[in-house]
């Protein structure tokens, strides 16, 4: 039928004289390569996989719902790289033709394996408290254009997301999306790992729409493919349904345990507003770090004594037997840390910062070499540094160039042990250890808080990485 419908093997190419947005033109739908082409002023082309959300057919009219602009930026840099919603109305010569094109378009989109049902968690108090507005203005319209069904639930209190992820009926959904900062995503990971079925639960694809103050994961995911950081680009990445695996790091101190992406040990929980203060009164902390270096990073530190590593009994927890493992949720990676070669660096330290992804928030890249699933944590250690150089190092973290400084030690590790100490010159004062912006342990003389910290400041804290344990929606 039509002017040029042709089937060659499995490749189907449809050609018709149609109207696109009111202009008569010859259009071609090459199903094999997944492209719609027509002329309108010049040659126009829509790549279905990377530019089409969905479509609607009414009689002879097919409205193609597109998200355009992202590809152009990647190939020729002409657009600003933020995708935009755009409809293209194709008027076909007759209904039969409209049905055939619709059917082929539907089959093609279905073959991409995109998510059909999503569970969405929204933190109304994250960041600038805009998550509801972001959802209604930027997330909902794109999901609806893509025919994705969703269940929306707001988080009502701290750790609510963790509780929900622990109980959620996962079979009903193709993914869990957080409209929040990175903190809620980490809660979801922890909730999934607390389930009896944690080993299947943790494979549910997770998505993040940036709506917090710390949006390092969304920035890292987009930046890794040369994409521009924007809310709609992050939503489109989820809709397209590409996935990548993500390392999960477990933090252990005695019986206390949780999983996360970033850890920082310094005088404050937040780098941004505190850095000026830090520079004005640069503080150093005694302490001791030990680590299992990734291949190529063995030159840092000195060889550690095996007895020191195992004295806190962590290795027993890490090498637990499988029956217990399944009953009480995830307890950490299955690797034995005792057989590995540990190295050691003694303080004082100005800063110890561990990351699993390059960006800690939209404009700070402490770990430019970090990979989502290489099985290693990237560690930034600053031991000694004049005030002026420290200020410039913090500024250089905007583009990751701080790693070239002789004041910075940058290494990749498989496991890490931190023994935090007191402030140099103030033996009664400790520091703060934070993870994803949340304080997990604070020393004496930092500041009072009504909540009990998850961990104590002083006893060693162990971090171990489980390579590619979780799955996250990714732009490519
Ligand atoms: N309704 C709520 N009321 C209070 N806290 C909440 C609520 N919902 C979620 N939270 C908590 O808010 C914290 C931060 O959430 P999120 O990561 O979304 O935002 P953020 O602005 O990036 O956070 P942060 O300011 O810690 O960087 C989480 O620890 C979460 O438990």
Automatic annotation (TrEMBL):
One of its GO terms (biological process) is sphingosine biosynthetic process. Signal peptide: none annotated. One of its GO terms (cellular component) is vacuolar membrane. Coiled coil: none annotated. PROSITE patterns: DAGK. Pfam families: DAGK_cat, YegS_C. It is a peripheral membrane protein. It is found in: Vacuole membrane. Its EC number is 2.7.1.91. Residues 113-255 form the DAGKc domain. It is an enzyme of class 2 (transferase). The keyword Transferase applies. The keyword Membrane applies. Keywords: ATP-binding, Kinase, Membrane, Nucleotide-binding, Transferase. Its main location: membrane. One of its GO terms (molecular function) is ATP binding. This is sphingosine kinase. It comes from Dioscorea zingiberensis.
């Amino acid at each position: 039928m039509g002017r040029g419908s042709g089937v060659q093997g499995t490749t189907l190419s449809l050609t018709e004289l149609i109207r696109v947005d009111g202009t008569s033109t010859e259009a071609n739908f090459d199903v094999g390569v997944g492209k719609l082409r027509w002329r309108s002023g010049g040659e126009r082309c829509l790549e279905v996989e990377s530019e089409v959300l969905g479509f609607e057919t009414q009689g002879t009219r097919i409205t193609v719902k597109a998200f355009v602009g992202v590809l152009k930026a990647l190939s020729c840099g002409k657009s600003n790289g933020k995708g935009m919603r755009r409809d293209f109305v194709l008027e076909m010569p007759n209904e039969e033709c409209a049905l055939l094109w619709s059917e082929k378009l539907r089959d093609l989109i279905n073959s991409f394996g995109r998510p059909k049902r999503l569970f969405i968690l929204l933190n109304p108090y994250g960041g600038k408290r805009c998550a509801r507005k972001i959802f209604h203005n930027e997330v909902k319209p794109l999901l609806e254009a893509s025919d994705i069904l969703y269940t929306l639930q707001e988080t009502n209190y701290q750790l609510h997301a963790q509780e929900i992820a622990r109980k959620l009926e996962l079979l009903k959904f193709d993914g869990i999306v957080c409209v929040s900062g990175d903190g809620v995503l980490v809660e979801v990971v922890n909730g999934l790992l607390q389930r009896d079925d944690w080993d299947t639960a943790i494979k549910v694809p997770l998505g993040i729409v940036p709506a917090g103050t710390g949006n390092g994961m969304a920035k890292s995911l987009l930046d890794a493919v040369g994409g521009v950081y924007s809310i709609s680009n992050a939503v489109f990445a989820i809709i397209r349904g590409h996935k990548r695996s993500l390392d999960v790091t477990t933090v252990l101190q005695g019986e206390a345990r949780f999983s996360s992406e970033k850890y920082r040990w310094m005088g404050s929980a937040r780098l941004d507003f505190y850095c000026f203060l830090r520079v004005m009164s640069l503080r150093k902390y005694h302490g001791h770090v030990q680590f299992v270096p990734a291949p190529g990073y063995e030159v840092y530190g000195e060889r550690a004594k095996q007895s020191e590593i195992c004295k806190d009994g962590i290795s027993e927890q890490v090498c637990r037997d499988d029956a217990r493992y399944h009953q009480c949720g995830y307890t950490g990676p299955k690797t034995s840390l005792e057989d590995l070669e540990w190295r050691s660096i003694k303080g004082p330290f100005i800063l110890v910062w561990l990351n699993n992804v390059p960006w800690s928030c939209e404009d700070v890249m402490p770990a430019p070499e970090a990979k989502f699933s290489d099985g290693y944590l990237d560690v930034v250690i600053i031991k000694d540094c004049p005030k002026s150089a420290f200020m410039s190092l913090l500024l250089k973290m905007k583009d990751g160039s701080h790693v070239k400084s002789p004041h910075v030690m940058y290494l990749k590790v498989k496991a890490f042990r931190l023994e935090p100490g007191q402030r140099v010159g103030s033996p009664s004062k400790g520091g703060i250890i934070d993870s994803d912006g949340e304080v997990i342990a604070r020393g004496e003389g930092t500041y009072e808080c009504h909540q009990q910290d998850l961990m104590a400041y002083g006893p060693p804290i162990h971090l171990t990485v489980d390579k590619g344990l979780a799955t996250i929606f990714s732009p490519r």
